[in-house]
Amino acid sequence: MPTLKSSRKRLRQNVKRRARNRAEKSRMRTVVKRALAAIDDDPTTAEEALAAAYGALDRAAKKGVIHTRQADRRKARLAARLKTAKQGKE
């Protein structure tokens, strides 16, 4: 355990931030998994789930949980997966 007063405060802050970041990351992962499941089930009606995933990824990037480029990369991969799923169903 830290002995300095500032170190103790820093530890408290880190614990709070870690909990907040973990919650946001978990929420993001859940929404992305739902979008992937929607794409696999019925690609024609997956746009709503995809929009929710985009929002969750952007929110996580805005809060600093993931990097902005990682959010963009994940969104691009979701869009590509939807595109290939739509082409396969036609």
Description:
This protein is mostly helical. The protein has one domain: Methane Monooxygenase Hydroxylase, Chain G, domain 1, CATH 1.20.58.110. It has 3 helices and no strands. The protein is elongated and about 65 Å long. The termini are far apart.
Distance from N terminus to C terminus (CA atoms, Å) equals 61 Å
Tally of individual domains: 1
Q: Helix fraction? A: over 70%
**Would you state the CATH class?**
Mainly Alpha
Helices and strands in order:
Elements: H1 5-41, H2 47-62, H3 68-89
Helix pairs in contact: 1-2, 1-3, 2-3
In short:
The chain has 90 residues and is mostly helical. It has helices at residues 5-41, 47-62, 68-89. α1 runs parallel beside α3 (68-89).
